[in-house]
């Protein structure tokens, strides 16, 4: 496609998922019925069953899709060969840049998909057991990317601290999509700076708390 070509319009299935995400975020999963979702996309509630077998299946595909997008985006920013490398002897020169790219990726996703972030945060417990296991597995893989990148950027930070820092940054970024008081780009820059400052501070405080070796 040329650069001037129009973007492919969303499929009916994608339209349904987008509408359902907005409704679930606003009213909660149990506060939304099939008829509500159908009305939002201009079709009858029963017609939705041509695309999804149930509201549970809709939520499962939605949250699985979010997790897959986040994982793929994280992998794209670090390169497939990064995961599993031994820290010993590794060149950490580019690690801060990789961490900054990873932070900005998550910030952009959260700001551009506030309804999806809200649904993800609130509705994991409403998934069927198979879908919950699948989403959890994808989320764990995404967290491991963060833990390793944080560890590369701050070699003195131990693994439990890197893991705690990753979850803390998720909390910071994911809590803000619905509370913007500045424009989108300014918010993205602010969140990125705050997240990186928090990670840098976690490393600095850990280093300061370590005892000075006795010569």
Automatic annotation (TrEMBL):
Residues 10-70 form the HTH tetR-type domain. Residues 33-52 bind DNA. InterPro entries: Homeodomain-like_sf (IPR009057), HTH-type_TetR-like_transc_reg (IPR050109), HTH_TetR (IPR001647), KstR2_TetR_C (IPR041490), Tet_transcr_reg_TetR-rel_C_sf (IPR036271). Pfam families: TetR_C_24, TetR_N. Keywords: DNA-binding. Gene3D superfamilies: Homeodomain-like (1.10.10.60), Tetracycline Repressor, domain 2 (1.10.357.10). This is TetR/AcrR family transcriptional regulator. It comes from Actinokineospora guangxiensis.
């Amino acid at each position: 496609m040329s650069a001037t070509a129009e973007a492919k319009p969303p499929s009916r299935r994608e339209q349904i998922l987008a509408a359902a995400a907005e409704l679930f975020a606003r009213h909660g999963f149990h506060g939304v019925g099939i008829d509500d979702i159908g009305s939002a996309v201009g079709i009858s509630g029963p017609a939705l069953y041509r695309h999804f077998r149930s509201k549970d299946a809709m939520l499962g595909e939605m949250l699985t899709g979010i997790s897959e997008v986040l994982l793929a985006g994280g992998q794209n920013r670090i390169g497939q060969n990064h995961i599993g490398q031994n820290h010993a002897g590794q060149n950490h020169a580019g690690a801060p840049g990789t961490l900054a790219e990873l932070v900005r990726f998550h910030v952009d996703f959260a700001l551009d998909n506030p309804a999806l972030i809200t649904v993800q945060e609130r509705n994991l417990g409403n998934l069927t057991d198979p879908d919950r296991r699948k989403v959890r597995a994808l989320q764990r893989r995404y967290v491991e990317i963060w833990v390793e990148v944080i560890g590369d950027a701050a070699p003195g930070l131990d693994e439990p601290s890197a893991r705690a820092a990753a979850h803390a940054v998720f909390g910071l970024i994911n809590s803000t999509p619905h509370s913007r008081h500045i424009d989108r780009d300014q918010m993205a820059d602010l969140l990125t700076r705050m997240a990186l400052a928090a990670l840098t501070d976690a490393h600095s405080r850990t280093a300061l708390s370590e005892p000075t070796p006795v010569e």
